[in-house]
Design brief:
single chain, mainly alpha, 5 helices, elongated, disordered C terminus, binds fe (ii) ion
Length: about 230
């Protein structure tokens, strides 16, 4: 127990930190419920969108805890076993996240891996909220400084994630355009539609590639919430 009550600023900072982390947990659990309603075979793009959003949110959330919260907790708590356990659980979580990043939504184990990840995270956050956070609410540490560090880090990671997302979408659009151009070129070559075309010949049908083609969904961020306040 703290030897004396925390200042109002420290209490506010502590409550803000823990509340935002709880909100991160809630968003992941909500996304998992959303995912369970989808039929992965019928709608792989919707499934993939949820998965990508969760992976992104978990990655940011885990970084905030690993780089800032857990080290502060290790210093402040007399027993660091809760921190050790949490860090080991994060290691397993990262293994599942990395496996999912390399997996296509069509992979037969895609749904299984995401399900295991979410079940695992559900267990982990339950422990954080029922054991670690209550212990942290009893200790003295520089909550105001920690809140500033976490806010800054969250903003930095979110911006990087959004930039990565935008870059992925640009690459996807470029790939689609190249594919269309290539398709158009091959049809033109096949149909001899060059300057030697007989003026009396009937107009050739529009090449397939000239139809407006929707870029394939990247599946990465469709339906994603604004990441102004991500996990
Ligand atoms: Fe955690
Ligand atoms: Fe957490």
């Amino acid at each position: 127990m703290p030897s004396r009550p925390l200042s109002r600023a420290a209490t506010t900072a502590r409550d803000q930190i823990l509340e935002e982390l709880r909100e991160d947990h809630k968003r992941v659990k909500k996304a998992y419920k959303e995912f369970q309603k989808f039929d992965a075979d019928a709608d792989p793009e919707a499934c993939s969108a949820v998965v990508q959003r969760v992976l992104q949110e978990l990655t940011v959330h885990a970084a905030l805890e690993e780089e800032l919260l857990y080290p502060a907790a290790r210093d402040a708590l007399t027993d660091d076993s809760l921190v050790n356990e949490a860090e080991v659980e994060h290691e397993s979580m990262h293994t599942l996240i990395n496996q999912l990043k390399d997996l296509s939504p069509e992979d037969e184990k895609y749904v299984a891996r995401f399900t295991v990840l979410c079940e695992y995270v559900t267990h982990h956050v339950k422990e954080e909220e029922s054991e670690m956070f209550p212990e942290l609410e009893k200790v003295r540490l520089d909550w105001v400084a920690l809140a500033t560090q976490i806010n800054d880090k969250r903003a930095e990671l979110t911006a990087a994630s959004e930039e990565e997302d935008a870059s992925g979408q640009r690459l996807s659009a470029q790939a689609t355009q190249t594919e269309n151009e290539s398709e158009t070129g091959s049809v033109a070559a096949d149909g001899q539609s060059d300057d030697s075309t007989d003026a009396d010949a009937p107009p050739a049908p529009a090449p397939r590639g000239s139809r407006a083609k929707r870029p394939p969904a990247t599946g990465s961020r469709a339906g994603r919430n604004s990441t102004a306040n991500p996990a």
